[in-house]
Amino acid sequence: MSAYxxxxxxxxxxxxxxxxxxxxxxxxxxxxxxxxxYIQHGQQPDEHSCPFCRxxxxxxxxxxxxxxxxHAFVLLNLYPYNSGHLLVCPYRHVATYDEATPExxxxxxxxTQIAMRVVKQISKCDGFNIGMNQGRIAGAGIAEHLxxxxxxxxxxxxxxxxxxxxxxxxxxxxxxxRQEIAEAWPA
Length: 187
Fold this sequence. Notes:
HIT family, subunit A, 5-stranded antiparallel beta sheet, transferase, FHIT, 6 helices, HIT-like, nucleotidyltransferase, single chain, alpha+beta, two-stranded antiparallel sheet, nucleotidyltransferase activity, 16% strand
């Protein structure tokens, strides 16, 4: 199955692509222009309204926190790519990884490892996507507060439903997933 290809790109027919700059690769392109609005007009909250700064002051259930450390905490993503999509955040409001203290970096790493073990144990996932988008230009939804994504993946968990219908199918409710992960988290 091949990904959707637009008929034209910047006014250049795709059959003329061989004449354009660049080195051909094995990647197929999935064009998602509907995401441009999110990227260009994403709202960046200030420190006082930052959801990652506010979350630790709420109950774990209300904020979707599954575990709290000394320098960082783990919570479910409110807009997950897959069930069990977690975020690891320092308590301190810092924007990028290079601004984090050695203690914050160490705990983010430790919490990431524990999160992977717990999610693998309870969800039987086949793999993970782990990463940080540093800055708004890199696609960070909340660019001013460092956070690492941990996205569980299963064989055949992708489909075109999000593209065709603009909808992501999630088989479990956030509260259920939060409770299951929190209960399985080692003390």
